[in-house]
Each structure stands twice: as C-alpha cells, then as structure tokens.
Amino acid sequence: MERKRSYIYPDKDSLVAAFVCEFIRCLKIDSGTERPLRIALSGGSTPMNIFRQLSQETSREDWRDVHLYWGDERCVPPGHPESNYGNTQVALLEPLGLSQDQVHRIRGEEKPHGEADRYGQLLQKQLPVTNGFPVFDWIWLGLGTDGHTASIFPHQIEMWTAGSPCIVTSHPDSGQQRISLTGGVINVAKRVSFIASGKEKAGVIREIFQKEGRYMEYPAFYVDPSSGNLEWYLDQDATYLL
Question: Which of 11, 33, 39, 231 is most buried (most C-beta within 10 Å)?
C-alpha cells in the first residue's frame, strides 16, 4: 500500500499554522464554484488548535458554502467535555456564528445504534453517493497511539469494512461507546488528511509508514482513498523514529 504525501513541520504550532493556511486557500478556491464544500471534522487537541486559529483568521462569510460533519463522536451529550461537537462549537462554531443549517452533528446523547443509522441516512441524503457510500470533499483524521482512526479501534478492526456508512464502536479501555464513519466512507472521500503530532505517535507512524511490526492491526493503515488524495500533516516529534 503506497503512502501518499507527507508534510512534516518543526513543531505543533507550525503544523497548525500550515494547515490553517491550506484550509483558507481551499476556502478561497471553493468560493467561486457555487457548490457546497462538505467536510468531516476530527476531534483531538491539534484540530482544536486549528479551529481556534481559524476562528480568528476567517469570517462567517468565508464559510458560507461550507457544510460541517463529524468523522466520529463519543456517545455523550453536546455539553460534555469529551464531545467532539461540543468542543468544536466552543472553538469555532460560536466564535464565527455559523448557521445551524451548515452544521450536521452526530447526536451523541441519543441511543447509539439508532443514531448511527440516522446519521448514515442523513449523509446518503445530503452527499453524493459512490458504491453505496456518501462522498465527502474532505475528511480530517486523527491518529491514536494504538493505530486507531476516527473511532475504529484495533480490537474492532472488522468494523472498518462494515457495509453501512456509520457504526457503533467501543473504546478498548473505558468501554465508552462511539459512533464512527466506516472505512467505506473514508476511502471514497475526495481528499483525506491525517493530522497528528507528538512523540507518543512516533511508534505507530513508523510501523505504518515502514510496514513493520503490527501495522496490519491498525485501522489507520487501511486509509487508502480511491481518489489517491491522502496526506499526512505531522510534526517532527511524530516522525522522529522514521
């Protein structure tokens, strides 16, 4: 499996700044197309830093054609400190005053399996569909130290190839339930970007990039969009073992 483009920055702040610049560039390009830009966001500390910077460097008007979705969500209410949507709301949505019509959240407070079905149907209704899976313009992904991405973990790797757009998973340690996009959705996206920083990610990144160790157990290894448009935004700490 060929790894695609990798962008490595001196530190986390540089990574964030570069990703923000790239996102603003895409907003400007897309503003002339008169079509919605559909993005699935990631949780995690680095994306939150990106959101905060974007809230300072862009305006509501810049986002007028953007529709936001989520790659995964913990099964908690939106006011919970672990809610991906809730954290994004504070960091980005509220400061920019984005319209609720543009924001399509996973309802973590609902019954998990029913919500996974609802969200999958919503995606299929609102997005183009290829091979039965909704097609995002851009999916942002994080990377766990155990090789998980979105909320598909190694102990449930069979969920990667589930036939539905969304599934319910559980955290291997806490047992917390989560709702996640499946590999079918991720791999039909027009563009997929991993965003990862920190020395704690270096081991799994080395195994994935070098195809060694337990790499075939890691859901993140199977991210391989048919578009060929896969990129890794990393800092030097995350790549020091390469």
Answer: 39
Question: What does the CA dihedral 82, 88, 89, 93 come to, rounded to 10 degrees?
Answer: 180
pLDDT digits (tens, 9 = 90+) for 85-137: 999 999 999 999 999 999 999 999 999 999 999 999 999 999 999 999 999 99
Structure tokens at 48: 């939150």
Strand ranges (DSSP E) for the chain? Answer: 5-9, 37-41, 66-70, 72-74, 129-130, 133-134, 138-141, 166-170, 177-181, 192-196, 230-235
Cα–Cα distance, 4 to 124 (Å, whole number): 27
At CA 94, angle to CA 88 and CA 99, rounded to 5? 100
CATH class of 13-239: alpha beta
* CA neighbours closer than 13 Å in the CB half-sphere of residue 196: 28
Q: Is the pLDDT of residue 2 over 50?
A: no
Query: In sequence order, what are the beta bridge partners of 7?
Result: 233
Residue 56: CB atoms within 10 Å = 9
